[in-house]
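Proteins fold reproducibly. Next comes a concrete instance:

***
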Amino acid sequence: MTTTALRHRDALRDILPLYLVIGPENCPPGRWLQVARLALEGGVSCLQYRDKTSDDAQFLANARALVAVAEPFGVPVLLNDRVELVAKSGAQGAHIGQDDISPKEARDQLGEAAVLGLSVGSLEELRQHDPKRVDYLGIGPAFATTTKADSGEAIGPDGISSILSCSNTPAVAIGGISTKTIPYLQGLGLFGVALITFITQSSDPKAASLDMGRELKMLSSR
C-alpha cells in the first residue's frame, strides 16, 4: 500500500486499531527494538516512534531501524513531533501534539502523501484542527496515566465521546489503556486505541499485544 493510500479512511480503519507508541524512553534499557518486534508479532497495527531526548542524528538512526523492523509486517511507522525527519527515515507520517508545530506547518513540510495525527484533549483543542490537514486524532488522556508527565487530567469516556460527537476525523483513545480499562470505551466510535506502558513494560510484549487484540475483537462483536 502506498503512503498516500494510508490517508484514506478505510485504510486508517485497518491500521489504527492497535497502535503502539514506542521508543528507548519507555522500554527496558536496550530492548526497545526487540519489544517493537515482539509487539508486531502480537498484532500491533501501527507504530509511533517517540523519543524526546535524542538528537536528530540518533533519532533518525533509531527511526530508520524501527522502519526496517516494521516493514516485513506491512505496518506503518509515524514519528512523534520530528516532522522534518519523516522523509529521511522512510516513515509513513508523523504525529504532533498541541505544543508542537501547527497542523498547517506539519502538512506543509510533509506534503500531501504522508499521514498526520494530532493529539487532542478538549473541545477547544479540537476546534483548532483542520480535518483537511489532519488524518486522525489521538484523544486523551482517556484514563489516569503516569507515562507522560504533561498529559493532563484524564477526560474519561464522556470526554472522549464529547470530542467524537463534534468531529468526523478518525480517532484513537490514548492514556491508561489496558485490558481492564478498554471495556469502558465500547460503543464510542473509536477507530482504535494507542498504548504505551501496557505493552512496552510487559514481561511478554507479544502476549500483551495478543491480549489487547482479542479484547478489541470482543468489543467490536458485542
Notes: The first strand starts at residue 18 and ends at 22. Residues 205-221 form the longest helix (17 residues). The chain has a mean pLDDT of 93.
